[in-house]
Amino acid sequence: MTSRKKGEFGYDSWENNSADFNGNAGVWTGITVDPELGSVYLPVEDSTNDVYGGSRPGNDLFADSLVCVDIHTGKMKWYYQLVHHPIFNYDISSPPLLGDIVVNGKPVKAVAVPTKEAFLYVFDRVTGKPVWPMIERPVPQSDTPGEKSSKTQPFPPNRRLMPASICAWKI
Question: Higher-confidence residue: 51 or 72?
Fold first, then answer.
């Protein structure tokens, strides 16, 4: 599912055919099942090597993504990549949390993902759309030889779980 083959959706996000020889991008933490919606939420980790991406340029779908699949067919319903071209070992370390919330007076079946960066990403668990708009912000670029880091990263607005001074990215 998370390893892409030539011609499959997401393969082109691995530049220089790097999906052919880079592995991992599996699920190592707990998965979450929503029997009511018939969905399974997979918190996908970094691809190999977690802290250096020089051998896998590009955004590397579906590494560091929340992937929702149909419980009966295994087909992907939606995904959202939390970190583009992961190089800081910021993979998803907690199982997704399900909850029913109210936003602007409307009920939302939500799935929330806390991360190592102390962010809380919250999505409509039916559609996969962020409950609050994500902000693609420019981030510092790597000066490691051979590394080509992503120019931007998605940030959830006002959903920080701890002070920014503790995190690597200043926002």
Answer: 72
